[in-house]
Amino acid sequence: MPDDQRPYAVLDIDATLSDTSERIHFLAKRPKDWDSFFAHAKEDAVLDEGLAVATTLAADHEIVYLTGRPERLRRDTLKWLKDNGFPDGKVYMRGNTDRRPSVLMKLGRLERLAEDRPVAVLVDDDAKVCAAAEKAGYTVMRADWGLDAETQPTLFDAQESEGRT
Predict the structure, then answer these.
(1) Any residues with CB less than 8 A from the CB of 123 and at least 6 apart, and which?
(2) Cβ distance 65 to 11 under 8 Å?
(3) Reported confidence tier of residue 157, pLDDT bands at 50, 70, 90
């Protein structure tokens, strides 16, 4: 099937493909240190499960990376994906001043992508994003391999209440 006809597989990055555990502590303090959290994103280790899922999906899908990272991290994000062997794909990032909850930002992008061709699956670690996507009729693979029970609430709160990742 030509690339322009393959359905989309949409993958989150933080805590789905990348291990955020070494920088999550920047969000646990008050005020949250977003600059440091994002500055260290380029140092994240790869989550092997995420790489395996991305590689498998790339065989039959056009890969789309949908991240709440701000646009100012595009160069570092593209380099990280390439350096770590992730399949080529479009990368959609949050605008630098966009503070909408991840649910709104990501569902809006899924709707726009679905206007072009089918979205076969969304792979994301955020329970609220996954639930909203399923409710909207998308197939979801919950990336439960990226964060442990201790760090999940910190990242999920940041995603929803401050619209940062």
Answers:
(1) 9, 10, 11, 12, 16, 50, 53, 54, 57, 140, 141, 143
(2) yes
(3) low
Lookup result for tokens 């005020």:
31
**Contacts for 159 with CB less than 8 Å, ≥ 6 apart:** 68, 101, 102, 126, 128, 129, 165
Cα torsion 83, 64, 96, 13 to 10°: value is -60
**Tokens 């590689």 -> residue:** 55
Instruction: Give dist(CA 23, CA 98) in Å, integer.
Output: 21
Nearest to 124 by CA among 111, 110, 116: 110
CATH topology of domain 3-161: Rossmann fold (3.40.50)
The pTM score is: 0.88
Residues 66-89: b if buried by 16+ CB within 10 A, e if exposed:
bbbbbeebeeebeebbeebebbeb
Q: What φ, ψ does residue 66 adopt, rounded to 5°?
A: -120, 110
72-129 tens-digit pLDDT: 999 999 999 999 999 999 999 999 999 889 999 999 999 999 999 999 999 999 999 9
